[in-house]
């Protein structure tokens, strides 16, 4: 099945208000800037966004927050090098934050993709992040129960994909993306290059096409850090 889509606008047009959206990236590494900006153009409201951080500067996720699209942010690092978009909305009471330790965030997403509704971790035990959660003891040590994370949509950036959606990533741009692909009901991917089926060595496939629904080619994707350095703003 050919999963290629010919525009980022077409790729995101079915994302509705109140959707839960996972967005790949670790800072700028693997951030799907073109898909994010297309989503801003589309304009759904009251989104829950799951990412490692809460955006930077005035582009990407930060621009989504600026636009008033995000009702809730689930992340590990709400304060980045330029967190003003999130800070302004949070201090005004216009956005909800669910803070999750980074390893726990990754495992909650992995659990969502694997069909595991809950697991136990010692991380966050004895802190405010454990308040209201189930605590259990194993072998004399206390653990916090954490629930899976799943999403309606995932927006992902990969390096090479074939027309069936098999993906490879560029080094650390891989980060959360394979986990998010598995944990989302619909996965939308931007790639620098699309090849025919068989054009990727099966031993090099990181995300199987089974977890990908749509793929769009962006030959020269924008890099978040370069945009921030240039003091760029979404427009």
Describe this protein's structure.
With 235 residues, this protein is an alpha/beta fold. It has one domain: 3-Layer(aba) Sandwich (Glutaconate Coenzyme A-transferase), CATH 3.40.1080. Helices cover 23% and strands 28% of the residues. The chain contains 7 helices and 12 strands. The strands form 2 sheets. Strands 1, 2, 3, 4, 5, 9, 10, 11 and 12 form a 9-stranded mixed beta sheet that branches. Helix 5 packs across helix 6. It starts with a strand and ends in a 6-residue tail after the last helix.
Which key phrases capture this entry?
235 residues; alpha/beta; Glutaconate Coenzyme A-transferase; nine-stranded mixed sheet; 7 helices; 12 strands
- CATH architecture group name: 3-Layer(aba) Sandwich
Radius of gyration (CA) equals 18 Å
H-E string = EHEHEHEHEHEEEEEHEEH
Measured as a percent range, the helix fraction is 10-25%
Number of domains: 1
CATH topology: Glutaconate Coenzyme A-transferase
Large-scale geometry: globular
What is the CATH first-level class name? Alpha Beta
SSE-based structural type: alpha/beta
In the predicted model, the low-confidence regions spanning at least 5 consecutive residues are: none
**H/I helix tally:** 7
Assigned CATH superfamily? Glutaconate Coenzyme A-transferase
Rounded to the nearest angstrom, the distance between the terminal CA atoms is: 35 Å
Largest sheet: 9 strands, mixed
What number is the mean pLDDT? 96
Percent of residues in β-strands: 25-35%
The number of distinct β-strands equals: 12
């Amino acid at each position: 099945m050919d999963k290629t889509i010919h525009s980022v606008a077409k790729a995101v047009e079915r994302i509705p208000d109140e959707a839960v959206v996972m967005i790949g990236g670790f800072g700028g590494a693997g951030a799907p800037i073109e898909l994010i900006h297309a989503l801003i153009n589309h304009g759904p409201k009251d989104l829950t966004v799951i990412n490692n951080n809460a955006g930077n500067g005035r582009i990407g996720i930060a621009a989504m927050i600026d636009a008033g699209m995000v009702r809730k942010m689930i992340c590990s690092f709400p304060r980045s090098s330029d967190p003003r978009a999130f800070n302004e909305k949070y201090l005004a009471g216009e956005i909800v934050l669910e803070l999750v330790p980074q390893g726990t965030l990754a495992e909650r997403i992995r659990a969502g993709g694997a069909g595991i509704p809950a697991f136990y971790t010692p991380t966050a035990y004895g802190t405010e992040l454990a308040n209201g959660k189930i605590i259990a003891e194993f072998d004399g040590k206390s653990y916090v129960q954490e629930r899976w994370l799943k999403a309606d949509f995932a927006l992902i950036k990969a390096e090479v994909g074939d027309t069936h959606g098999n993906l490879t990533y560029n080094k650390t741009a891989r980060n959360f993306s394979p986990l998010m692909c598995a944990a989302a009901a619909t996965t939308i991917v931007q790639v620098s290059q699309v090849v025919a089926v068989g054009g990727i060595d099966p031993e090099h496939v990181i995300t199987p096409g089974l977890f990908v629904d749509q793929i769009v080619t962006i030959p020269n994707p924008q890099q978040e850090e370069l945009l921030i350095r240039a003091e760029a703003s979404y427009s």
